[in-house]
Each structure stands twice: as structure tokens, then as C-alpha cells.
Amino acid sequence: MIGNNKAKFVAGNWKMNGDAAQLRTLTSEIVADLGECNNVALFPPNTYLWLVREILRESTMGYGAQNVARADNGAHTGEISASMLVDMGCRYVIVGHSERRHTYGEDDTLIAAKMQCAILSHLCPILCVGETKTQRENGDIFEVITQQLTVGLAHIPFPQHIMIAYEPVWAIGSGKAATPKQIMQMHEVIHKWLAQQANECKIAVLYGGSVNADNADAILSIPQVDGVLVGGSSLKSSEFVAIAKSACAHY
Ligand code: 13P
Fold first, then answer.
1. What is the pTM of this model?
2. N or C terminus: fewer CB in 10 A for the chain?
């Protein structure tokens, strides 16, 4: 698993929030409280990567981007490539987040190309998978997730330096996290699928969707959960630090 050898991983996805002053304060408070924590990573909007890089210069904490281009250079107006992210010191990149899938129309094939670009640049991609409320109600959830994994990882030779984040769409930003039983069932399916690709590979599977300081400990206690991908609660330093401290107590 990636992180400080043993501790579970905690990623803070700030999405499209904050300005330079707010994010400077947030980053500084997180670093001051957590110090050396290489099992924690921050995902600011791209325009503030330089700022996080500056503040984390002396820290082992990682950072990354929320998205990446499907190509590495050339005529791709508005896009940012994996090698540019590496140049900015990124260690990680989130790929296929549900907001990219559902608001910006990204499909599994495009996501697979982005995964490949990230791997080729030696970034650690975090591939997000998750079902909608309707898919859950229809009982298709395991097929949906297996399909997202199969196509999204089609070009990835195993074992590989990647992580998977299970983020049920209905749990994101809803204040209603999946139950420990729902999380455990899906993580088990994902771990089994990964093990079929390569027996030896230990790929971290994170959970995301309304994780907060109150429910983090219960979620991180689930043996099949290797960490959490936190949205709203990563924008409050005290909440995020509490989640990260809880992760350090679980391995
Ligand atoms: P929330 O924690 O706000 O539900 O967001 C989860 C998420 O989308 C992280 O990528």
C-alpha cells in the first residue's frame, strides 16, 4: 500500500473551491497539525498547485491534480498533461471522478487513455469508480463497477502503482455515506477483481462519499478499506486533520 508504510491513505479533494488566501491558510494549518505524513495528499485546483507545492516543500505530504489530459503534449487547448503535473511536483492524479463522468461526459474509454498517460509519466493515478442511485436500485452495482474497472484499466499492465477509489455517486456531497456493510461488500468485489489481474499486487482501495470526522473511524476500521478520498470535509482543516489522525491509527 502507498502511504507511510502502514497507515491508511487520506486524500483531500478540494474540487473547484477556495482562493489563494484561503487555500494558503488551509494548507498551512494542515501541515502544521500533521507534520510529516506521507500517507496524506492534497488535491487543489490546478491554479493553486504551485502554492501547495511551496508550502509542502519541507514536508513529505504529497499532492496531486484532480484531472489530467488524455495526451501528453500538442494541440489540446485548455488541457494539462501528466508530464506537466510531474513538473509541478505532483505525485498523484485523480482520474474519472464522478463529476468528470457525469457533468463533463467522460466515458470509460477516455478515462482509460488518461490512466495510461498518468502511468507513462510515473504519476500514481487514483481511478474513481461508483454507481448511481438508479444503478444501485436496479441491483446492477457489481457489473457497473466491474465494467468501469475493466475498461478504465484496459491499458494498464499489472501490478502497477495505482489506487482505486470507490465513490458511490449518491453518497458524494449528500451527507449520507454508504453503510459499512455496503462499503465492505463493494471493496471486497474490487479487491477480488484486482487480485484476478495479478495475484501479487496490493493496490489500495479507498472509499469516498460524505466522509467526515464523525464517520471516518468506522469507515477506516473496515479491513477492506485502505484509505479515504474526502471532499467537503477536506476544506476544513480541523475536520481533515481529525480524519488523517484517525487513518494513522489504522493499518
Ligand atoms: P464529499 O466528501 O464532499 O462527499 O465528496 C467526495 C468526493 O467526491 C471526493 O472525491
1. 0.96
2. C
Q: Which grid cell sits at 138?
A: 436496479
Residue 162: half-sphere exposure toward Cβ, Cα within 13 Å: 28
Gap from CA of 209 to ligand 1 centroid (Å): 5
- pLDDT tens-digit profile of 94-148? 999 999 999 999 999 999 999 999 999 999 999 999 999 999 999 989 999 999 9
Phi, psi of 165 (to 5 degrees): -120, 120
**CA–CA distance from 212 to each of 42, 60, 66, 230 (Å)?**
16, 23, 20, 8
* Protein residue closest via CA to atom 7 of ligand 1: 231
- CB neighbours of residue 28 within 10 Å: 13
CA of 50 to the centre of ligand 1 (A): 23
